[in-house]
Each structure stands twice: as C-alpha cells, then as structure tokens.
Design brief:
alpha/beta; 42% helix; globular
Length: 376
C-alpha cells in the first residue's frame, strides 16, 4: 500500500464514506457494517467520513457503535462536518460539534469540514464567522485538520480559498463523467485546488452508483477490458491525479468493500487503453439523457420535503425507464410511493429540495417528468 503523501496519519488513499451504509429496513445493519469495517481496517485503511445529517443521524451513532466502541482511537481517523441546516447563529456551532463528538463516541475529529459549500450558503458561514469559530476548535484539540466540502462552480471555490487560506483540505465531487461537465466542473474545481496547493478528498467517484450500473452501450465498452469491475475503473480514474489525498467510496454491502479494497490496496494508474475506454463510456453516456442525481438524499433529509416524496428513488426509476429500458422501472416507482411516501404528482413546488441539491438539479421540473412517465 502506498503511503499518503499529504497526511502521514492517513493509511493509503481510500476512505470509507458513511452516507450509504448497509440498511436493515430503516436502521443501519450493524452486523454488515461491522463486517465491512473489520475488512477495511484489516486491509490497512483508516479514514472514515460522516456528517450529522447522513441517514437521519444514524451514520454518526453507527460509527460510535461499530467503530469507536470496537477499535482503539489510534486505529481510525474520522471526518465530520458543520452542516448548514444544523446551525442558525454563531452560538449554535460549539454546542453542535459537542453533540457530534458525543454521537460519534470520540473526543476529537481528525478532519472537520464546512459542509457542502456553495455560493448561497457560504454567505451564511461568513455572517456567523463559522470558519473562524471552527478553526478555534483546532487550537483546543477538538479537531486536528480544518477543511471544506464543496458543491459549486470553480470560481466560487477560488473565492473561498482566497478568503480562507487556513483551509487545509478540500473535498470535491470528482469522477470521469463529471470531469468536463458544465454544471459540476470537476476538472476546473480540481484545478483551483491545484492553484492553491490544497490536497483533495474525492466524493462521488462512482457518481452514486451511476458508474457501476452503466447503460448497456457504456457497459459493453468496459466489459471488453480485463474483467475488472465497473467501479474499479472509476475509482482508479479519481485516484490518478496528483493532488488526490483520499478517494471516498460510500459502500452499502460487504462485496462492494472487498471490490474497492482489491482496487485501492495496490493501486495502479489507468493505462492508455483503459483511458480510451473511459472516453468511450463518457461518449456513450452523452447519448443518454440521464438525471445526474447521486442519491445523496439531502433533498429529503431533515424534513426538507414537506410532502415526503422520495425524490432520489423517483429519479432512479425515471432513469431506468428512459435510459436503461428497465421493465421493472414502474415497480421501483411504486415502491418509492409506498409506506406513506407521496407520489411525484403531489409535489407542491415549494423549492426547498432545490436549495439543498448539490447537483443544482431542477427537481420540480424533473418531478413533472416523473409524473408523465408513471402517471398511469
């Protein structure tokens, strides 16, 4: 395993993202999470990433029960975040991080990030002096390293890093499909990190599973290679840039963990043939009109949707319906409308979902498309 060239305490460059943990009904499946955690740490890795809003608060408590309570603190690193929805004023910030530490069962965070920064919420962080307050936690030993996670255009990141040179690390959405995407601007955002000499943490390297469950034409391209998984090519692409400190994967079962360990433990850069194949996959995606939803669930966490519409599930069903020609798509839509969840047609167009969407999707319009596809 390669040593981390940016932070020696990080083992390797593969992180366990805890936003999409294995579930047993509405609860985190502790048996499966324990099994995944054991495999991850046994393989020599140690970087865990969470946020208070993940899985309705269960991500932090699952880390407490399955990681902090089972392993010595020296065996793992933990990243947590200050989320916009979790504070209103400056005085809320200290009680919030104290709550997070308690929920996670730790005395300090190795990395603490200003969460999902974009042009709109950054103003709130400035007005409440959130950066300055959080940075004081470093002097107090509550955090070891200070950074941000980011979802916006490159010029916004340039502004933030210019105004806050104390930022030590930047977490960005980065994958081969978003690399030259005009909305996400992965390449341009990465180049801003290079400009300011900031190490990068990659989130969404497989784009919420979209680079695993490929459209048929794209899947056929990778099948013609050496028999590796679709996820492995995406992970290796993301890890292949000079400033990448950690590539985080949000895994929901043990098999995904094993596949990522196999890819990342002895990481090999993509060769010319594989890079050419990736270019062909991107081209194939360009011929399919997919909704670029990553199922982060920000739109439905913390009661963001007053009608309780499972928006990511709706979009997944529509993608299957329109692009993947999945005959089961109507069944997926019906499941998304079950257990008290509303239909797409019941959207009241309040716009709360769009304000928190990291992908800046026109969700209200897209729900109209879902309604048309599955209205009957």
């Amino acid at each position: 395993m390669q040593n981390n060239k940016f932070f020696p305490e990080i083992k390797g460059n593969f992180g366990f993202g805890c936003m999409r943990l294995p579930m047993n009904g509405s609860k985190v499946d502790y048996d499966e999470f324990n099994k995944m955690t054991d495999a991850f740490i046994s393989a020599g890795f140690n970087y865990f990433d969470t946020a208070h809003v993940y899985i309705g608060g269960q991500s932090e408590t699952a880390i407490r029960d399955c990681v902090a309570n089972r392993y010595d603190r020296s065996k793992f690193l933990l990243t947590d975040k200050l989320t916009d929805a979790c504070f209103r004023k400056s005085d809320d910030i200290r009680p919030f991080i104290e709550k997070q530490l308690k929920c996670c069962g730790v005395d300090y965070f190795d990395f603490y990030l200003m969460h999902a920064q974009d042009n709109s919420n950054y103003e709130k962080y400035k007005e409440t002096n959130a950066y300055e307050i959080a940075y004081k936690f470093k002097d107090e030993g509550l955090i070891k390293h200070f950074g941000i996670s980011f979802h916006d255009k490159a010029d916004v990141l340039d502004k933030i890093l210019h105004e806050h040179p104390e930022v030590e690390i930047v977490q960005i959405q980065f994958n081969y499909l978003d690399y030259d995407d005009v909305v996400v601007e992965s390449r341009k955002v990465y180049e801003v990190c290079e400009k300011y000499n900031k190490p990068v943490v990659v989130m969404e390297p497989v784009k919420g599973g979209s680079l695993v469950n490929l459209p048929p034409k794209a899947a056929n391209v990778l099948t013609g290679l050496e028999g590796k998984s679709n996820a492995s090519y995406a992970m290796r692409f993301a890890a292949g840039f000079d400033k990448m400190a950690v590539v985080i994967s949000g895994m929901s079962n043990y098999e995904q963990m094993l596949d990522n360990i196999d890819t990342m433990k002895d990481l090999k850069s993509l060769d010319d043939r594989e890079l050419t194949a990736i270019e062909q996959v991107v081209k194939a995606f360009g011929e399919v009109n997919l909704i670029p939803c990553t199922s982060c669930k920000y739109c439905i966490e913390e009661n963001e949707c007053p009608k309780n519409i499972l928006i990511p599930d709706m979009f997944s069903a529509l993608n299957a319906h329109d692009a993947f020609h999945d005959w089961n798509s109507s069944l997926y839509y019906d499941v998304a409308c079950g257990n008290g969840h509303a239909k797409a047609s019941e959207c009241i167009k309040c716009g709360k979902c769009e304000k928190v969407c990291p992908q800046h999707l026109p969700i209200r319009k897209l729900l109209e498309d879902v309604k048309k596809a599955f209205g009957k």
